[in-house]
Amino acid sequence: MQYKIMAPKAINSTIFLPSSKSISNRALILNALSMNTSTLENLSDCDDTNVMIDAFKSGSIGNNLIDVKAAGTSMRFLTALLAITPGEWIITGTERMQERPINILVEALTSLGARITYLGNIGYPPLKIKGTALDGGEIYLSGDVSSQFISALLMIAPMMSKGLTIHLEGNIVSIPYIKLTLGMMAQFGVKTHWDDKTIKIYPEEYKPTHYVVESDWSAASYWYEMAALADDAHIELKGLFKNSMQGDSKVAELFADLGISTEYTDESVVLKKTNKVTKKMFHNFVNEPDLAQTFVVTCCMMNIPFMFTGLQSLKIKETDRIEALKAEMKKLGYLIYDSENSILEWNGEKCEPEADAVIRTYEDHRMAMAFAPAAIKLGHINIAHPNVVTKSYPRYWNDLKHVGFTVEE
User: Fold this and answer.
1) Boundaries of CATH 3.65.10.10 in the chain?
2) Largest CA distance in the chain
3) 21-201 domain in CATH 3.65.10.10?
4) DSSP letters along 131-180, please?
5) What's the pLDDT tens digit per position in 252-307?
6) What is the CA angle 195-208-146, rounded to 5?
7) d(CA 293, CA 324)
8) Which residues of the chain have pLDDT under 50?
9) Class of the CATH-defined domain 2-15+215-408
């Protein structure tokens, strides 16, 4: 299936954004560890969160086979949780999930006493886990591994008899996601200590707490993109807050360079055009890797050359996002180059675009959502396998129709 997307030239609307997937998935783990019986409010209705919810239902945990499908966050967080949950478990996922390495997390857990074996290729899901109490202690991890590995270990750390000390070596990537985890752990009653490159967590019980999930700043990025590309825009995004723990709230500051101002209210943000646009954009996305696709597409559509660094984690996302961006932007007539497995650059070089190109989505929700707004500049765009957006933003296409886009199957 594919969609043909046609766009309005002006957008004036209010959007109720989906809840944060990152917060929802952490909240589900912390809620379980706190033995909380109350319901979390405003949980995301995306695929990644739903597979986590399914895992906590008696029918899923009870039959010992958990399929997280394409949900990387769920694979990592649940692997750690199951390692300390009495019983025998098998955790698996899609074919692409079975190509995404998990050896760093498994090795860390086994060094702490976990009993985990690979059922397929060494270093990759599916996994067989025999849940057991962990002693804890000290481990050393490279700081440039996925923050989800680190967060998975941090959340179960208070349950270890000796607690856990993580020494992060080298350059630390995705710091806001680690801070988000530690901040939420504090909201569930656990004290944490982060000094330079060492995070220390003592044995402590989580406390049940009433929790309301904030809207998703990552989802907001596509509305900033639409505002930047449109001739005129006034967009209110509900459920976002200025003092957010989400690292992707950085999008507000970054889009100021692309002509979009952000006004904060008590319950939303309002986007308006300023027309103050940079001539070339530079940014290190090491702390906001999920925003990279949005900015690559936006800058090309606005003819703004860029150099984006800190993109090393894009190689192991839902797809190799660096290669995917190069291939799909070339279809639209833009030649972007990568180097050092972490840099993407466009110097303004163009090529002949494909006639009526179809954008591949590579089972990656962010490819679909980042490329769709390009219809504003291109007249229309074709998106293959558009249903991938259910991974994080199930209402995305309906919201586009709400503001005047035409979406034809």
Assistant:
1) 2-15+215-408, 21-201
2) 62
3) yes
4) E-----EEEEEETTS-HHHHHHHHHHGGGSTT-EEEEEESPPP-HHHHHH
5) 999 999 999 999 999 999 999 998 999 999 999 988 989 999 999 999 999 999 99
6) 40
7) 10
8) 58-61
9) alpha beta
Structure token digits, residue 269:
């943000």
Query: What single-letter amino acid sits at 67?
Result: D
| Interhelix angle 72-83/103-111, nearest 10 degrees | 10
Is 232 part of the annotated catalytic residue set?
A: no
Catalytic residue among 48, 216, 290, 364: 290
C-alpha span between 77 and 29 (Å, rounded): 7
Give DSSP secondary structure letters for 255-317.
HTTEEEEEEE-SSEEEEEEEEEE-SSEEEEGGG-GGGHHHHHHHHHHTT--EEEE--GGGGGS
At 272, which amino acid appears?
K
- pLDDT for position 318: 66
Handedness of CA 282, 285, 288, 291 (dihedral sign): positive
Spell 321-350 as b/e; 16+ CB within 10 A means b.
Answer: bbebbbebbbbbebebebeeebbbebeeee
Place of tokens 């009526």: 356
Structure token pair of residue 225:
């993109």
Write the pLDDT tens digit of every residue in 175-196.
Answer: 889 999 999 999 999 999 999 9
